[in-house]
Amino acid sequence: MDDSDAAALGRFLTLSDTAEILAITPAEALELVRSNELPAIRIGSSHLWRVERVILESYIEAKYEEARRLSLWEQSDFGNIPEISGGRVMRPRSHPSDSPR
Question: Which InterPro entries does this chain map to (predicted)?
């Protein structure tokens, strides 16, 4: 969406506009709102849901970041355990019964 398209839509989007931008159905957009995954407000006497354009853009960016992190996690295949443990190599502690007497 370029700036002229965004300006034409205005600050608040209907669920249909939101669904079109996300390439999902309006029912799926409503479910995102009802589950609080996508913040929205009710505006006007009809109390229809509206999604602020900047909120939708932030939501999309967060989804990209989530996908990026998931991809990195799957690629790592636990390959760098010291990184996960804060850079320390964790060694199992000896149990007192393991020590020679």
Answer: HTH_17 (IPR041657)
